[in-house]
UniProtKB/TrEMBL annotation, chain A:
InterPro entries: SAM-dependent_MTases_sf, SAM_dep_MeTrfase_SAV2177_type
Pfam families for the chain: Methyltransf_19 (PF04672)
Listed Gene3D superfamilies: Vaccinia Virus protein VP39
Name of this chain's protein: S-adenosyl methyltransferase
Species the sequence originates in: Streptomyces purpureus
Automatic annotation (TrEMBL), chain B:
Domain (PAC) ranges: 235-287
Listed PROSITE patterns: EAL (PS50883), GGDEF (PS50887), PAC (PS50113), PAS (PS50112)
One Pfam family, short name: EAL
Domain GGDEF: 317-451
PAS domain ranges (all copies): 161-231
NCBIfam families: GGDEF, sensory_box
InterPro entries according to UniProt: Biofilm_reg_signaling (IPR052155), EAL_dom (IPR001633), EAL_sf (IPR035919), GGDEF_dom (IPR000160), Nucleotide_cyclase (IPR029787), PAC (IPR001610), PAS (IPR000014), PAS-assoc_C (IPR000700)
Protein name: GGDEF domain-containing protein
Domain EAL: 460-719
Amino acid sequence: MERPAWAPPGIDLSVPSVSRMYDYYLGGSHNFEVDREAARRAMEFMPGLPKIMQANRAFMRRAVRHAVDEGITQFLDIGSGIPTFGNVHEVAQAASPDARVVYVDHDPVAVAHSQAVLAGNDRATVVAADLRKPLDILTDPKTTGLLDFDRPVALLLVAVLHFLEDADEPGRAVAELRDALAPGSLLILSHASFEGIPLPEEQAGGTVGVYRSIRNPLVMRSRAEVTAFFDGFDIVEPGLVSMPHWRPEGPADQEDPYAFSGFAGVGRKA
Amino acid sequence: MMPAQASRTAAEPDGLEDRLRRFATIWSRAIFPVTATSLTRPEFEEHLLPLARSLRDALHRRPFDAAPAQHAGAALVAAHCTDTDALTRTLGVIESYLVLYCGAHGDTPAEELRARCARLQHALAGGFAQALRERTLVEQEAIARSALAARSDAQEALHATETRFRAVFEGAAIGIGIADLDGNVVEVNEALTRMFGGLESSVRRRNVSEWVHPEDAPHVWKLYGELVRGERDHYRVEKPYYRGDGTVLWTNLTVSLLRDAEGRPQYQLALMEDTTERRLLNLRLRYEATHDALTGLPNRTLFFERLDKAVSATDGSRFGLCYLDLDGFKAINDSLGHSSGDRLLVEVADRLQSVATRPGEMVARLGGDEFVALTTGPDTQTEVAELAHRILGALATPVRLDGRELTVRGSVGVVEGPAGERTSAEVLRSADITMYRAKSAGGNRYEYADPEADARAITRHGLTTALPAALERGEFFIEYQPLVHLGDGSVHGAEALVRWCHPQHGVLGPDRFIPLAEHTGLIVPLGRWVLQEAVRQARYWQTRHADGGPLRINVNLSPTQLHHPGLVADTVDVLERSGLEPGALCLEVTESALIGADEDLLKPLRQLADMGVDIALDDFGTGYSNLANLRRLPVSVLKLDRSFTQGMQRHPADPVDLKIVEGIVSLAHSLELAVTVEGVETGAQAEQLRELGCDTAQGWYYARPGAPDRIHSLVMADAVQ
C-alpha cells in the first residue's frame, strides 16, 4: 500500500543516506558506519568520487557568487543535504549580507542537522520536502515567508536531479519550479553522467549499482538529457560544461581528472 | 586578500617574504589534492601563508615554543584538510623545505634548526590529531543529535498521523475492519460494529470465513481466497451478512490486501457500506416498476423480461403464449362505470392467477383488459392448449358485481414454438393478431397463430399506417370506367375508381385499402380528393367535347363520408370551383349504408339531390333491400349488383334472374328511377339487359377501368358513329 501523503517518512538509520555519504566523501564525520560502508563500496569502483564532490562544491560556490554578481539575493537550494562547509548561505551572505536562502531536503536527518546549523540565522531556513512534489516546496510557509517569487530567485538543483528516475518525471518537476520563478531567475544545475568520467563505463556502472542497492538509484544522463532540463532558460556562458570548466578561477588543467565527470550549467529565465 | 597582496609587494626577490611564499606554494601544491576544501588553489595557498609564517617564526623564536605548530595542525583540520594524507604530506614538506626556505636568516646553528624542525613536526602532528579528534567528536555528536531530533520529529508526526488516522477510522461513516490473512478480525470501527447490531465483541470474535450467506454471489469466496493468498490486491462485491439477531445486512464490500514494506501480504482491509435500506427500496421500486398497481399481476415490463428470456433460450426449450382480451369489456366499463370495470379486472386477474400455477407459467396484465399467460418448458405444445382451456374455463363462471351476475367472455390468441426463432415483439404481435382473429370469429374462443393470417394482418397493418403519407405523396390515382347508354350504345358518363400505386405492393384496388381508410377516418380526405379529381376531370371532358353531350361522372361515397358533417359543403365547394353543373355528378351510396337511415342521415343527401346531384343506390339487391323504403330515399338511380348479371352470362339465361331483373326495372321505373347494371361482360348480356329495359350499363364488355384519356377516345368514337 502506498504511504498516504500526510504520513511522514520514517527514520531508518540502518539505511545509508546519500546526504551523509556525500559528507563522508568530503571528509566530514556527519555520518554513520552504514553510510561510510556504502561510500567505501562506491569508491571501490570510482576512487575519485571525493574529487567529483569537491568540484561540485566549487562549482556551486562560483555559481552562487555569479548569481550575487547578477544582483540575485534569493536562493532556493533543493537537495541541500548535510551542510558541511562552504554552504550556499555562507557564500551568498558573505557576498551580500541580506541574501536569503531556503534549503530543501527530504532526508529528515539532513533537515534536522540543517536546522541546528541555521539556528539563529533568520535569513536562512530549511524545508522538509521532496523535489518530486514542487508544489509542496513552493507553498511551504517557510519558503513563502523568506522568498519573494515576484523577484528573481536562484534555483539550485545541484547534484540532485540524478537521484530522480524518469518515472519521477524530473522534467515536469523542473518545469513546475520554473513556472513559479520570475523572469531573470537563474537555474544552477549539476548532474552526474557517464560522460567525462576517466573510467570505462562498466566500471563506473559499479557505482551506479551501489546506489541502486541502497534504494537511491543514481541516474546517469547524457548531455542532451541534461540540456533538456534548461527548457525555458537561456544557458549562460560558457554553456553546459564539465564542472571545472564553468567560469574557472584558476587554470582548469590542474584539476583532478575525476573533477571533469558530469555536467554543470547555469540558465537564466527569460 | 589585501594583507597577502601587501606582503607580496613587500617581498623582494629571494628576500625573506619571497622565500616564505615559495614554501607556502610547495606546501599548498602538496596537500591541495587531498583536501576537501571548496577554496580555489590560489585561495588555499593564501590560506596556508599565515600558517607557514607562524612555523617560520617558531623555528627561530627564543625560547623555543612549539605551540604555533600545534595551532597550525589544528588550522589544517579547520580548513577541511581532514584526510590523513594531508598530515603526512605536510610533515614531509616541513621536513624537506622549512629549514631550506626559512632557516637561512638568524643565528641559530643548523644543528639546532633541524632539531627544532623535528619538534615542530611533532607538535603539528599532535595539534592536527587533537583537532581532528575534536572535530570528529563534534560532528558525530551533531549528526547523532540531528538523527535523534529527526527521529523524534518523525515520531511526533507519526503520532499526529496516527491520531488523525484513528479519528478517521473511528469517525468514518463506512464500516472499516482489519483482519489477518487467516481471517481473524483484528480491529473494527464503530460504524462497522453498528452495522452488525452494535456489539463489538460479537464481530471481533468471528472469523471472516464464517460470514457465509446463502445469497453470496458464487465468486465472492473465490475472490477472498485469491486475496489472502496474495494473488489479488483488492475486490469489490455486493455481500449479505447475518447480523447477530438473524436479520440480514446488505453491504457494498471492498476488500484490499495490505502488504508490508517488502511487499509480503500482511492484513486484509474491508470497507463496508450498508446498503440494506437502499436494497429494500430498490426491491420495492423494482416491484412497483414490474407489477400492475390495480391487479398486482406482473406488468408489461416484467412480462417482456420473461418473454425475452423464454424466446432467446438456447437450451432447446419451447414457449407457449396465450393473449387474452375480454369480449365486450368496453361496454361493461361504459355501462357500469370504471370502478366496476376495475373490480371486474381484479377478479379476472385473480382467476387467471389461480389457473396458471404450474412451474414455468406466469400471468401478466399488459394494460386495459388485455392479459397474457406464458408457459415455458419442453412440453408447451400440449400445455399451452390446456392453459388456454383453463383460461376460458376460469371465465366461464359469471362474476358477481354489485349484486349482479356478469358473464365475462374472452378471446385468446395462442402462439407456441421453439425458442431462438423469433423476437419477443414478433411473438407478441402474432398473439395479438391471433386474438383478434378469435374475436372476429365470434369471441369466447381461442385460436392458434397462423403465419399466413399473421402476414395478411401485418400487411393490412402496414397499409393502414402508410395511408396518410400515401395521400400526401400523391400515390393515389383514379381510373375511369365508362357508363354506356344501353339504348344507343353511346358513352353516357364514367365511374371514378380510386387506385393506390403502392411503392412495394404495386397498384392496389379499393377493396384493399378503402376499408382501412374507413377504419382510420382517412376516407374523408381521401374521398374529398377523389371527388375533386373526378369532378375536375369531368369538367375537362366537357370543355373538350362541347358537342358530345354532357358527360356524367359517378363518384362513390363511403358510409363514413356520408356521416361527415362537411359532405354537402365540400361537394358544393368542389362543384363551384370546377364549374361543373350539379346534374353532371352522381354520388353512389351503397344500399347497406342506407339501411335503417333516419332523416338526419338522409338530409345531406336530400340537399344534394335538391341541388340536382344524382344519388345512385349502389350494389342494389345484395343487402336487405327494403323496397318500401326506396320511396323515401332521395335516390334517382339504382345500380344493380353484378350478381344479377352473372346469372345472364349463361346461355340461355337463368329465367328466374331474368324475372327478378325485369321486376326490379319495372319497379324502379315506376318510382322514376333509372337503372344501371354492372358487370356486363358479353354482347348477349348487353342485348338482354337492354331488352329488359335497363338504362345504362358498365362492364368489361365496354371497357375496363382506365386512364381518363381512354374515356376521351371512346367518346370520340361515339361522336364519329
